[in-house]
Design brief:
Largest sheet: none
Strand content: under 5%
Number of strands: 0
Order of helices and strands: HHHHHHHHH
Radius of gyration: 21 Å
Number of domains: 1
Number of helices: 9
Distance between the termini: 85 Å
Length: 171
């Protein structure tokens, strides 16, 4: 009787990262400190400026719904990235890219998916009242430029702190 041929041993190959962008240390620190709260969110900024924009209750509710959808998508995109960087034990060398798709580009796509709906909710008068630094994110033509920078979707600490606590019920 001839012995059965043995199967070739399974060689485990390392999974290669397919991300094309490595985030800067500042972006990673912002992600780990603020979570998705450090990522550009024009819907939240609109809600914080609801009074000055004179949003109606229906407009604010609709924008809040879009905000919720956007935040859920941001969490899907960035939670694995955050977990990846938290698990890095060597923080002295260069940062390696997170595995998977480019989170910056995925964020820009998520933003692009809601921008048209947000703009459709605002009257021309309200659109003219939107601050220029916020209006940049509501113009879909500007979004590709954000995607070209690995940190393009992160708000600076000055922007982040300047937007906290404003608007309805804020301080």
């Amino acid at each position: 009787m001839t012995p059965a041929p043995q199967a070739a041993p399974v060689v485990k190959r390392p999974v290669r990262a397919t991300a094309s962008v490595t985030l800067s240390r500042n972006a990673v620190a912002s992600l780990l400190r603020f979570g998705t709260g450090g990522i550009v969110n024009p819907t939240l900024l609109l809600l914080r400026n609801a009074d000055s924009l004179k949003l109606t209750g229906a407009q604010a509710d609709s924008i809040a719904t879009l905000n919720r959808r956007y935040m859920i998508r941001l969490n899907q995109i960035w939670s694995p990235v955050s977990a990846f960087y938290v698990s890095r034990t060597d923080t002295t060398g260069p940062l390696s890219p997170p595995p998977g798709n480019d989170p910056t580009r995925a964020t820009i796509q998520a933003l692009a998916d809601i921008v048209r709906d947000v703009n459709a909710l605002l009257t021309p008068e309200q659109q003219s009242r939107v601050a220029p630094n916020l209006g940049v994110y509501l113009d879909a033509r500007n979004l590709p430029a954000l995607a070209r920078s690995p940190d393009g979707v992160f708000m600076s600490l000055d922007q982040l702190y300047a937007t906290r606590g404003r608007g309805r019920g804020g301080g």
